[in-house]
Amino acid sequence: MPRPHLALLIALLTAFAISQFSDHFNPYYLDVLAGIGINVILAVSLNLVNGYTGQFSLGHAGFMSVGAYLSAAVTLFFAPRLFGSDGGTAVQQGVLFLAALLVGGLCAAVAGLVVGVPSLRLKGDYLALVTLGFGEIIRVTFQNVEKLGGALGLNAIPPYTTLFWVLAFAAVTIFIITCLVNSTYGRGFIATHDDEIAAEAVGLNTTRYKIVAFVVGAFFAGIAGGLYAHFKTTITPGGFDFTKSIEIVVMVILGGMGNTLGVILAAVLLTLLPEVLRPVAEYRMILYSFLLIVLMIARPQGLFAFKLPKARST
Amino acid sequence: MLSVSDLHVSYGAISALAGISFEIAQGAIVTLIGGNGAGKTTALRTISGLLRARRGRIAFLGEDITALPAHKIVARGLCHVPEGRMIFSNLTVDENLAMGAYLLHDRALIAQNRDYVFGVFPRLKERLKQMAGTLSGGEQQMLAIGRALMGNPRFLMLDEPSLGIAPRLIGTIFEKIVEINRDRGITILLVEQNANLALEISRYAYVLETGRVALQGESAQLRTEPLLKATYLGG
Ligand SMILES: Nc1ncnc2c1ncn2[C@@H]1O[C@H](COP(=O)(O)OP(=O)(O)OP(=O)(O)O)[C@@H](O)[C@H]1O
Ligand SMILES: [Mg+2]
User: How far is A216 from A111, CA to CA, in rounded Å?
Assistant: First the structure.
């Protein structure tokens, strides 16, 4: 079995093993752990766009919200109709949840395509602005759709997200993105980033690469959104505003753009940091921002300037 | 092989090419010389589809390619080695070469091209696992040419391969260009500011001045042209 596949298998088994004990966990730790897993999915998928392909997207929270709302809409609609009042068996719930996550991910991917096709012709700052604007448009849209709860959001979403789902999806996301960028096709993302003219000159369709990165990134953001919705059981449009997007961008930058392992570590660290700072209550966010600035100045190339050992299938 | 007629290109309001025309015969080395800002790079970029012409027509092997996107032009065997050694600095030498064969699917052909590239530039073989960004200037130029050869081109356009390279390496690069043309029958369009060398290895030459063809002729004859001598050949 090739190494990345073996790693995925081990990760999935570990996720399963850990989830067997999750009933004994302190709910607070469970909460933090799930938050870490979801942020890892978000950061690793954004890294494909902002890190490997070199496009500056600020709209990741927007795609996350599409996944959150649509997957929640699916389970809210189907769970009572299919399972009645007893809530269905674990297997039934699992199947419905998986389907809902995929619907959320695919809708986010479609949103990625709709935003990406016109805007990926733009460079740098403009792309950042357009994606930022898009994220806000999505948020305002959800705020105004009464069927989706309007400004109050959706609640009583079935709590389908277990630790197993979060860890398993984090592992799958890392696996897919790593295999993708290490494939011969995927080297094209890095080539597009390194030099667009040279990439075009050897026959790469760089526009298509950017769109593929954007759509794949949006898909996983949508999955993360679905996991989040079924973990929190309540979502509001405000939870997906641009500060969330910036939080993810910071993880990517701090991890070292285009360095998957670094980005995973940064996602873990930056999710834990506000928790560790909890005792200092009202100064927490100030201290958090301050630490971020210090980290950026001290390690502009990313906190973790080492590369994931290359594991390639071809 | 390539025929350019009445090509006009501008960047916004600034005109860079004001109607240039030239022909390149199959199997030849043709050079395009001219000073800074004459429009040489613009001409190559337009031919390879990286820039759009405002007017004019580009035909390759008898077919109109003026409106084709870059990757479709490369697929027809027209390959451009851009100015300033544009290699993929975050990929290894090996991966850079693999990207050059991006459009090929025949593994045997790719392996054959690799062997050929290593034959021309043995240095690259020694540095396969090195990140391309850490290569020396000359090595990067070899890599850029090698990468282009990986795609099995019929027509190769080189934009100032001597730019920023140690003088003793320039001779080597030019020898390799002649070798590639002779052994593989690849037609070459060579853009150069180093007019002496370019005229030495080419059959025919065009001199570009502020977006127009100022002079053209057999390279051997142009070398004795008084006007050219004064401007480009150092008296
Ligand atoms: N991206 C651009 N935007 C605006 N003007 C440009 C751009 N690129 C080139 N130009 C202008 O077009 C003209 C032709 O430039 P080009 O790069 O084709 O010259 P060149 O012959 O390749 O010069 P050099 O030998 O210095 O490379 C110049 O006047 C240049 O300033
Ligand atoms: Mg030039």
Answer: 11
CATH number at residue B145: 3.40.50.300
B187-211: pLDDT as tens digits: 999 999 888 889 999 999 999 999 9
Tens digits of residue pLDDT in A113-166:
998 888 877 776 788 888 889 888 988 899 898 888 888 889 889 999 989 999
* pLDDT over threshold 60, residue B123: yes
Q: How confident is the model at residue A300 (pLDDT cuts 50, 70, 90)?
A: low
The minimal CB distance from B91 to the residues A191, A204, A205 is found for: A191
Nearest-CA distance A204 → chain B (Å): 6
Residue A312 lies in a domain: no
Q: A197 lies in a domain? A: yes
* pLDDT tens, position by position, B86-118: 899 989 999 999 999 999 989 999 999 999 999
How much is the ipTM here?
0.84
Domain span at A292:
3-298
The pLDDT assigned to B230 comes to 66
Reduce the DSSP state of residue B16 to 3 states and report it: strand
Domains contained in chain B, number: 1
Assigned domain for A220 exists = yes
Any chain A CB within 8 A of the CB of B131?
Answer: no
Interchain contact A181–B (C-beta under 8 A): no
Helix axes of A260-276 and A27-46: crossing angle, nearest 10 degrees: 140
The structure tokens listed for A65 are: 């919200």
Q: Mean pLDDT, to the nearest integer, of A288-305?
A: 73
Give the alpha-carbon dihedral of B44, B45, B49, B51, to 10 degrees.
-140
Domain membership of residue A176 (yes or no) is: yes
- Expressed in angstroms and rounded, the spacing between residue A50 Cα and the centre of ligand 1 is 30
Task: Decide if B141 touches A, using CB distance below 8 A.
Answer: no
Domain assignment of residue B41, given as a range: 2-232
Number of domains in chain A: 1
In angstroms, what is the span from residue B163 Cα to ligand 2's centroid? Answer: 10
Q: Which of A202, A207, A307, A310 to mutate to test the interface with B (most CBs of B within 10 A)?
A: A202
Q: What is the CATH number of the domain that holds A116?
A: 1.10.3470
Question: For residue B197, what are the contacts with CB-CB under 8 A and spacing of at least 6?
Answer: B162, B170, B171, B174
Q: Do B89 and A198 touch (CB under 8 A)?
A: no
Tell the residue nearest (CA) to atom 26 of ligand 1: B36
Nearest by Cα to B93 from B139, B54, B125, B128: B128
